[in-house]
Design brief:
329 residues, Rossmann fold
Length: 329
């Protein structure tokens, strides 16, 4: 058996690589002689930097609520990789309940971009996802100052959503602590931001697909000349997922919470689509799942909440082994 193991992170408990290693241990229990190919996935959100090689530089930048944060990023030759969550992530403020959705800003991401540009990076990948702000990218562009607009192809934004700029607050605001009134205020401000961007760069992001990622940051960078791409597809291409699937007998993927959105731009959704395109059977191991699909196995449903939260790596290993057994594989 040749098994490709390509999960995303189990947010708050396991990185994508830790989850993959736990799945690998579960496969070994069932098939000790299996050939395993591990491809830890990401989709532009948290974990993208790790998937693309990990941080080899650190800088103190402005956090989402203006407190300094120590943010990691990567410079590999003339390629830079920046993860928005490292500088402007919701986790940095203590989650949605501790966030100030009006004040949260993207300035730190702009400061990391400025570092990369000043270091001579010819190409910069900016992962979006897990952000605290809905500032339309204004903070980032203010930090970049006259470094924007960008030369064609120099900045590539990895997104896990196709939401347009104008809808960023309505779709993602509640996840960042915004109530209904705040969502409307943020939406109105995004309209002002779009006009400002159109005036400055001649490109209006309001109705551009993927421009709503990271509270409109992706739209601001697009207005300044960046390319917006499917983050999961880009990461998969860099990591050689399609080649790994060519000779696979089975694919395992998963993430912390698997739901209907997982198939719409998220890492596991891309893995499932790529496996289906090659006719390779696939199983999903997730922390929790709210979709009733035979090939999806949740830690909570298989081994229980106590083990799932108390020892997630052991829970993933045991759930993987039981999934293979229950499927008759």
């Amino acid at each position: 058996m040749r098994v490709v193991i390509a999960p995303d992170k189990f947010k708050g408990t396991l990185t994508a690589r830790e989850a993959a290693n736990a799945m690998a241990a579960g496969v070994r229990e069932r098939w000790p002689d299996a050939e395993l190919v591990v491809v830890p996935m990401a989709d532009g959100g948290d974990g993208t930097l790790d998937a693309l090689g990990g941080a080899n530089r650190r800088d103190v930048v402005t956090g989402p609520l203006d407190r300094p944060v120590d943010a990691g990023w990567r410079l590999d030759g003339d390629l830079a990789v920046i993860e928005s969550a490292m500088a402007s992530g919701l986790v940095l403020v203590g989650g949605r309940d501790a966030n100030d959705p009006w004040a949260a800003n993207s300035r730190g991401v702009g400061e990391l971009l400025a570092r990369a540009l000043d270091a001579g990076a010819a190409r910069i990948l900016v992962g979006t996802g897990g952000s605290a702000m809905t500032d339309g990218g204004r903070g980032a562009l203010e930090a970049l100052d006259d470094r924007a607009p960008f030369a064609p192809g120099r900045v590539v934004v990895l997104t896990d959503t196709t939401v347009v700029f104008a809808d960023a607050a309505r779709v993602f605001g509640p996840q960042k602590g915004a109530d209904a009134e705040m969502v409307e205020r943020l939406t109105a401000r995004l309209g002002d931001d779009a006009e400002w961007l159109a005036t400055r760069f001649g490109r209006d992001p309001r109705h551009v697909p993927r421009a709503g990622a990271a509270g409109g940051l992706s739209g601001a960078l697009w207005a300044a000349g960046a390319d917006l791409v499917d983050g999961a597809a880009h990461v998969a291409d860099v990591l050689g997922l399609d080649g790994a699937l060519a000779a696979a007998d089975l694919v395992l993927t998963g993430e912390g919470a698997f739901d209907a959105t997982s198939r719409a731009g998220k890492g596991p959704g891309h893995v499932l689509a790529a496996a289906a395109a090659r006719g390779v059977p696939a199983l999903v191991v997730a922390g929790a799942a709210d979709v009733d699909v035979a090939a999806v196995f949740s830690l909570v449903g298989t081994v229980g909440t106590t083990l799932a939260w108390g020892d997630p790596a052991a829970a993933v290993r045991r759930t993987t082994a039981q999934a293979l057994e229950s499927m008759g594989l």
